[in-house]
Amino acid sequence: MPNQTRYGLTLLLLVLIALAVPAMAVASQANDPTPLVSPTVTLMPSGTPLPVEPTAMPATALPPTEAPVELTDEPDAEVTAEAGVQLPVSERVDPVDAGEISIGDTLEGTLSETEPAFVYTLTGTAGQSVRITLMSEDFDPYLVLEDADGNILDTDDDSAGSFDSRIGPFSLPADGEYRIVAQSFAYYNNSGAAVGDFTISVEEFETRRIEYTQEIAGTLTIEEPFQEYEFTGEAGDSIMIRLTAPSYDAYLTLLDDNGFDLISNDDSGGSLNSQIGPYELPYTGTYIISATSYSRSATGDYTLSLDQVELQPIAYGDTLQIEVEPNSNTFFFNFEANAGEVINVYAESDGSVNTDISLTDPYNSTLISDQDGGRRYDPEIVDFIVTSTGTHTLVLNVVDGEGTVSLTLERGVLPSLDEGTQQISFNTTQSNQTRALSFTGVAGQSVHLSFSVVEGATSGSPNITITQQGTSIAYASASYVSATSIDFTVPYDGEVFISVIEYSYTNISYEVALEPA
Question: Mean pLDDT throughout 240-269?
Answer without folding.
Answer: 86
